[in-house]
Amino acid sequence: MDLYIPQTLKELLPDALLSQCKAHPFAKGEYLFHLGKAPEYMFFIVSGEAVLSRSNPHGEATILQRCKGGFLSEASLLTDVYHCDAIATHAGTAITLPIQSFRSSLKDEQFSSKWIKLLSREIMRLRTQSERLGLKDIKSKLIHLIETDGKQGTLVLESDYKSLASELGITHEALYRSLSKMEAEGLIEKQQNSLRLINKLFRA
């Protein structure tokens, strides 16, 4: 079977790197890489979901990033060790690229420019996420998410509502309560895999 390579990678990577792409299926709960280990591969999530997690001295885990598509290990490209664990929360497939080859390819000016642009977009996305997490109430967080990540007032969910709650930094019980209240207010329409914003006047 031919290896599926997303258009994003086809447009980004030089031919020498594209030829080194390999599929890496993963199961829920599997570690893609471990904190403190020397980086061997760059991971591009094609399907499923993985999170970057790091535990404090008391053993409490903090989710640093949730990835449902795109590069997962870009922060470790030029470091000696992975700075966190990467754990699959939903089964899927990643594409792996040898990290040494990736580093060497950055000497190519055209590829380097494309890579910088991709990282700039990721920084903007993370700033938007940080802005959302800083909002005080769940309703505001949900509206912000639909408006920034959705299209024409509709957010298509790429995973389940428990994952959405974790992304918003709340419990899934609190999310369900807020969604029910917002539905009753006529603010949103909740479907199995999407949320549609109905009336923005309720934002106040």
A few lines on this structure:
With 204 residues, the chain is of the alpha+beta class.
Task: Report on this structure.
- The protein is an alpha+beta fold and 204 residues long.
- It is built from 7 helices and 9 strands, in the order ααββββββαααβααββ.
- The strands form 2 sheets. Strands 1, 2, 3, 4, 5 and 6 form a 6-stranded antiparallel beta sheet that branches. The chain has a 3-stranded antiparallel beta sheet with strand order 7-9-8.
- A hairpin with a 3-residue loop joins strand 8 and strand 9.
Shape: globular
Helix count from the secondary structure assignment: 7
What portion of residues belong to β-strands?
A: 25-35%
- Percent of residues in helices comes to 25-40%
- Alpha-carbon Rg, integer: 19 Å
Order of helices and strands: HHEEEEEEHHHEHHEE
Computed structural class: alpha+beta
Low-confidence stretches: none
Number of strands: 9
Largest sheet: 6 strands, antiparallel
Average pLDDT taken over every residue: 88
